[in-house]
Amino acid sequence: MQTRALGQSGLAVSAIGLGCMGMSEFYGPSDDAQSLATLEHALAIGITHFDTADMYGTGHNERLLGGFLKGRRDRVVLASKFGIVRLPGEHTRRIDTSPAYVRTACEASLQRLGVETIDLYYAHRLNPEIPVEETVGAMADLVRAGKVRALGLSEVSAATLRRAHAVHPIAAVQTEYSLWSRDPESGVLPACRELGVAFVAYAPLGRGMLTGHFGKDTELAESDIRRLSPRFQGENLEANLRLVGAVTALAAELGHTPAQVALAWLLAQGPDILPIPGTRRIPRLKENAAAAALMLSTEQLARLDAALPPGAAAGERYPADRMKGLNA
């Protein structure tokens, strides 16, 4: 698979990465054996960018990856995150980005992952009561100590990115970005390009909506977070399913899947865009990876832009209480 630069960190990653969150929770039941097989296949087909966080499964996801990484560490660009603090079995959370917690969280992640260094370490969310300069200053200490190679921020504003970058170079910003979540285009993405920061797009398939496999009668597991998403409820869901029709139609014409068209659109937005679709299953992994070879024409890109312009999706990305921590 082709590779893309991870900002100015000197690291390169596969054009399509792998978001590992769903291997632990949030999208219904998961199976460790199945997840490990998917991780193995990802590496075999050239996917090198693996994304996790300490709060995914309250540590389970990092431990899962830690087991997988034994004997493979030098073949993977490993990204993890800190800042969202949860207790096991609970969904309530708080945000801690204090310098003391930065150090504590990193040590805990290194232990769970079984590695000496995390390639890309993100502040998952920011506590507005703690200046970003203090948080990034503590993260920079981790770089100097050899515990982290490059720094990242998630769901931040352009202004916050600039303040952080003035303290220590930021290699990547991770934010939701897809055909139905295009807010970054008028906010943080231009700032990333101004500063030479890579943009890691999470939920690039709209949490499954853009795959064409989701319908109004789709049954969601009790533990599936989409049950709480405004975009998957009532009239919003019906409106969003109509939007997906444009992606499905173009995919049928091209002989590809809607997921591949949606990912190809993202890759075409610039060489600094790094999608990390998540999956637990090898067939979906192979489908997503194949999108790296799909080159959409200027006319096809324009057609998708017209059908799903910025702001087209009905409903917010998260429930109201979670929206407060975005674009901080």
UniProtKB/TrEMBL annotation:
CDD domains (UniProt xref): AKR_AKR13A_13D (cd19076)
UniProt xrefs under InterPro entries: AKR, Aldo-Keto_reductase, NAD(P)_OxRdtase_dom_sf, NADP_OxRdtase_dom
Gene Ontology CC annotations of this record: cytoplasm
UniProt KW keywords: Oxidoreductase
Signal peptide range: none
Domain of life according to the entry: Bacteria
Domain NADP-dependent oxidoreductase: 16-307
GO molecular function, one term: oxidoreductase activity
Name under which the protein is recorded: Aldo/keto reductase
Organism: Rhodovastum atsumiense
Species classification: Bacteria, Pseudomonadati, Pseudomonadota, Alphaproteobacteria, Acetobacterales
